[in-house]
Known about the structure:
The structure holds 2 protein chains of 2 kinds. By secondary structure, chain A is mainly α. Helices cover 67% and strands 3% of the residues of chain A. Residues 1-21 and 309-320 of chain B have low confidence and may be disordered.
Amino acid sequence: MPIYLYLDRRTFIHRLHPTVKILSIFAIFWSVYWVDSPISLLPVGVLLLAGAQLTRAWPNFYSLRWLFILVIFATTLTWIIFYRQGKPLFRVGPLYVSRASLEYGFGRGIKLAELLATSVLFLSTTKVEEFAFGLSEMGVPYRVGFAITLSFRLVPLFIDSALTVVQAQSLRGYDFDSGSLMTRVRRYVPVTVPVFMGALRKANNMAMALEARGFGYSARPTSYVHYEMRPLDIVMLIGMGLLGAAYFLIYYTGYGAIARR
Amino acid sequence: MKSAPESQAGFEPGGAAPQSASSAVTLEDVSFTYRSAQRPALLNVHFNQCAGEMIGVMGAAGTGKSSLARCLNAIIPEFEHGRFQGVVRIHGRGVDGTRVCEMAPTVGMVFQDFEAQLFSTNVAHEVAFAMEQVGLAPMDIRARLGPALAAVGLAGFEDRDPTSLSGGEKQRLAVASVLAAQPSVIVLDEPTTDLDPEGRAEVFDLIRKLRDRGLSLVIVEHETEEMRECDRIVVMRNAQIVAEGPPAQVLADTQLLNECGIRPPGLNLVLAALGIHSHARSVDEAEAIIRSSLHLPENFEPKFDLPQPDGPDAGSASTGVSAPLVEVGNLTHVYGGAVKALDQISLTINPGEFVAIIGQNGSGKTTLAKHVVGLIKPTAGDVRLAGRARTGLRPAEAAALVGYVFQNPDHQIFAATVGEEVAFGPRNFGLPAAEIERRCERVLKAVGLDGMRDKDPFLLGRGERQRLAVASILVLEPKLLILDEPTTGLDYPQQRRMMGLISELNRAGTAIVIITHTPWLVAEYARRAVLMRKGRKLFDGAVRDLFAREDLLGSAAFKVPEVTALSRRFGLVALTADELAGAIRGIR
């Protein structure tokens, strides 16, 4: 079970200031927000692929390949059902296949995949502690940053315990794949109860251990890792600013939209 | 008894500690009742610890050991709320009103649950954590990091992910992260309960080193052998301290220990059974005491056959007549395409057997058991149950042949009542209501939970929850019951009760396989042992034969019980204290 996406590669992207990395996420999210057509999303896609190549983060993308495929496919399909614009090429049941609905659906899929890819790239190159440091540099309270750090620690623990619970219950004849929707929901109880009870116990133990280790002593604890802004960080920031501005311009001029023919 | 070091030189413990003060910790007439509880967890407790002293706190579950420990860094009453009375002083200074976090530079605390006390994604960050919290400058943090990691033997681990460490390493990391804040008192609350023997040994080696550095140590612990090295032992019962003194005095009183739910050290049990009221710190010492007390000549090595215990002292080809319950043939399992967890294992389990599977963590014990119950599919080889291929059995058929009780009962308990919990399995398999009722009644009686049918399982104690977990598998009436570390987290009386239950089931005809790390459990209860190392089977045969093979056990980092080690000095392989004492009396 992969616990963190972080890959210890020490490329120039890894070494960027954490705040710059966080702002870069925002810039990319901002950019794809404004446009819909697949073609206008292409530059960001190329940028992300280049990022994956530069950081050698392919293993992470490979292990998440089905998620990417699913996101693109399911989104496209959904919008072909609901986006009923343009002249239909053909219709099958609820599917309304037109050039516009195809473009719009596929664009949406690509957009989601790009958001996902940005996050994967960020997590592949940023330690959780760096993330927290970046947030605190941006003025986010220490406790908020720390809560994010901690959630990264906890999620795998809970997944682990959920897997064990499923195994334990399956030996008692537990099978949540059968029955009607309501039975299925009820069938989750034997898994969710032990997992949540375990989580509560763990959370209490953790809170105790945290305080015993001095958590809460100071509102702004020191940080033993420290990052200075370097020229490359500034270049990156400017580049990302330009990207965001360019995409706003594409939106403003109407080039990023879908033709509703 | 080792005397407490006079100075605290070496690790520069806590700046707040006035060097002149001889008391590190004082509790004056402390009582505490948890908010939701009826009875007090601590009642008029007086406790004093000299600087540099190593104190062991022992007692059965729920007697107030952990509560005592939690008073020392203000978790009681600042984190755990309730009615608190009395005074706690650290280095002569009252801690009334001090927040838990403010205690970190003075009193460090290591908990049992190592998963819940590691918060970071790499070892260096983990150690830096407490120092960051108290506002140490980054330069100073870096200066303390190295020594703290070196002190626990984790130098060079800085970039490792804590989740990738072994249990012992995780617990040592927790100690390092506490140590870095340079407290003068360190409290360890059952630090080795969840560890295998290797991990335990690592942690106790470390504890010895900390003592040599002049730190004041309070250790809450169930196992007695390791506690012999304490300067003083405090015994708790019913929220009070009922005995305290040097180990030679407290641990020699086997009657007191039994009354307080503490397992007496095996060596002392042998001495007591021979009518010698004394305390042995090691096998060497026990041998010397016995030889001198009983006037045995130095070179006296009797030729003496031990009486065979009842039942077949069986090897793998035991009861013979009926067909085997489990046949594992050339089983290999590879995790994630790389790690060979099982390597060509073959194993047969016959009806009515009592088998212990032993070996270090990662030796493949649990993986093997999970193959038998079908939770994992083999990479190569096959598993047959009652002569049929495991894969060809329907879930209900398999469940009627083999049951598996997970280590942690909380991984399966979910129902609103004990009765519902037990009925869950048979209902899933579609048994008729009358049959379910009959089985529930029988099973709850067998595990001693009859009369608790309508109770909320979450309100039961750990020992009761463990028995409930056994009941909820037992109700499927398997012919073989596999229990993964059934005594972990239980105190001595609960361990005895659990093992008594398992033995009874075995006598009634259920075959038993236990996976365990605890040597005396194997010695006293199992008849056949399977020793595993790195996915291979090193030994399969009678427990007594295995315990005679020190070469094999050594290579798998398994220590025989001290009683057995002592018996070897007299040319025997005894499994229990009574057996050995009887044999020696026979010699005389």
